[in-house]
Amino acid sequence: MTLSSAAETAGAVPALETRDLTVRFGGHVAVNGVGCRFTRGTLTAIVGPNGAGKTTYFNLISGQLRATAGSVLLDGHDLSSHGAAGRTRRGIGRAFQLTNLFPNLTVRENIRLAVQARRGRGFDIFSMAAHGRHLIQRADAILEQVRLGVRADDVVATLPHGDQRKLEVAILIALEPRIFMFDEPTAGMSVDEVPVILDLIHGIKSDPANTVLLVEHKMDVVHSLADRIIVLHNGYLVADGDPKEVVASPIVQEAYLGMGASTHV
Ligand SMILES: Nc1ncnc2c1ncn2[C@@H]1O[C@H](COP(=O)(O)OP(=O)(O)OP(=O)(O)O)[C@@H](O)[C@H]1O
Q1: Which pLDDT belongs to residue 122?
Q2: Are residues 67 and 3 in the same domain?
Q3: How far, in Å, is the centroid of ligand 1 from the Cα of 53?
Q4: Which of 126, 154, 176 is the last residue of a domain?
Q5: Residue among 56, 65, 213, 216 whose CB has most ligand 1 atoms within 8 A, to mutate
Q6: Could you tell me if residue 64 is inside a domain?
Q7: Residue 144 Cα, ligand 1 centroid: separation in angstroms?
Q8: Which one, 79, 101, 157, 167, has least CB within 10 Å?
Q9: Beta strands across the sheet bearing 77-78
Q10: Residue 203, domain member (yes or no)
Q11: What is the pTM of this model?
Q12: Angle 226-51-15 (CA atoms, 0-180°, nearest 5)?
């Protein structure tokens, strides 16, 4: 039994669900009727050959793209009427590849802004000083968590690529989402930087309140983190279940081998 079907059997409302999710670009259906339930406390890896629809599926969930048909539900609530900003406020957090960083500010300033964006609303003038201290402490704790303390005062534009990727994770943590979405989080990182990111994602998924979705080509990364794999191919969800079983399944071998990408598996 897959993790998702176990949750269904128990009748639990999944943290996140897509129902018949579909998007067309002209005559091309990039994501085609994808139904999937994501359970709290689990990490699901989304894999598939190039052009399978993985990033498009992410864009539909996070609201960067509007679906042609189908829906996305967060804790059972339909998000169709909410765009990307509204979904972020409701707890869908996505690590963007360098696009949500302020390059001319320091690492610490970037994290403080994210903490402020999440926690800074609604405080009154009398509690401002204490609240401000609290925000700074929270930002400093995240700095240490992502091991960027030594870079705190560096301007983001001057950071090596790997540290910028860590900062993206820091900003995601600061936004305190319930759904964490990572799209190839170790892309472009050197071999010695990868374990830090994997540790961070592992820490995030260890919190039973969190639900993690990971798009990843590197199967060693997938195997080290995933509780479950779903496979997209030509926009369809073609396999779903335990990582070892899914990778060994004929349909997955065919999907990859058919695209000449056997080395991924
Ligand atoms: N905005 C768009 N307009 C037209 N076609 C698009 C658009 N976005 C994606 N596509 C097409 O949809 C299909 C799925 O693309 P997508 O980027 O989601 O694949 P992917 O699985 O993430 O691939 P990769 O692993 O290479 O990143 C591709 O054929 C792509 O060309």
Answers
A1: 46
A2: yes
A3: 5
A4: 176
A5: 56
A6: yes
A7: 36
A8: 157
A9: 28-38, 16-25, 69-74, 77-78
A10: no
A11: 0.88
A12: 40
